[in-house]
Each structure stands twice: as structure tokens, then as C-alpha cells.
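Case study 2.
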Amino acid sequence: MSNPYVGEIRLLPFNFAPLGWQDCNGALLSIAENDVLFNLIGTTYGGDGVNTFAVPDLRGRLPVHQGAFPGGSQRVLGSVAGSETVTLQLTQLPAHGHPMVATDAAASAQAPSTSTVLGGISGDTMYTSDINGVASRGLAATMLSFSGGNQPHDNLMPTLTLRYCISLFGIYPSQS
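Prediction:
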């Protein structure tokens, strides 16, 4: 691949890292064998800084530019944020109610529709289109229960998996 900068990261469509490139998988590399790359990134992504340093780990991660973004927080080089799953708590849900629309009129339908409301149950029917006396009432507190179970759900955007690789060799980038 044409003259990359040392430490340049490229997105590749193959199932291997080309010669002179390393997968961005958080691997620990020897400082003695990769001193130029270590000189550029140090222990920003891990390692002991004596014998080893780590390359960025982009598995399951979406890279973002460092610095502050409008209306957001500061992103520091090498920091990670976010999670693949999240558990919503009741305090994170918007306030809302559960009104029930019903009437005392005798039920005449077994299935709900856009023109029926709950009616007086009769046999196997519980819906009516008779809207005389229709009222919207909140359910009694004893009729409502919490749902969910505090289980995490997926928090992933649609993705296409490719391979991030970092160049171990090449042109040493000069600072402008």
C-alpha cells in the first residue's frame, strides 16, 4: 500500500492485515521492535510503557474525532465511551399515563377496532361501538404494575464490519 504514515489507520475490506500493518485490536506490541510507532502513540491505548504499548482497539467501536463537539462533551485521545447494551431505568422514561376509554353500554364485539371502546362484558364480547357515556379514566394504581425486568437491550446502530489496521512502518509524520 502506497507510502503510509507510521501510525496511519486504514479501513480495509480484506480478512487479513497486510504486511507491515497490524490489526487495531488492542494488541500489546514490543517497544523494542516498534520504537517509531511507540514514539508517536506512546501508551495512549495501553501497555506498560517500559516493554510494551498497545495499538488502538477498534473492535466494536466507532472512532470519533478528539476534542469538544457542539452541545457535547470533551473527547480525549484514547478515551472510550458507550456500551453495546443498556438497561433503562424508570427515571429515564418520560412521564406518561395509561388512561382507559370505556362505557357502561353492553359489549357487542369480540375484537377491538378503531371504532370500538371497552364496554360492559357480556359472554365472550367486551367491545362496543356505542359511545354514549364514554369516559376516559385513569386505571387504579393497583391495576398497574412495572414491566420490563431491568434487562439490558441492544444499543447498536446498523453496521458493516470491515477491518481497521494501523501502519507499523512508513513516513514519519511531521507536525505542522
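The longest strand covers residues 99-106.
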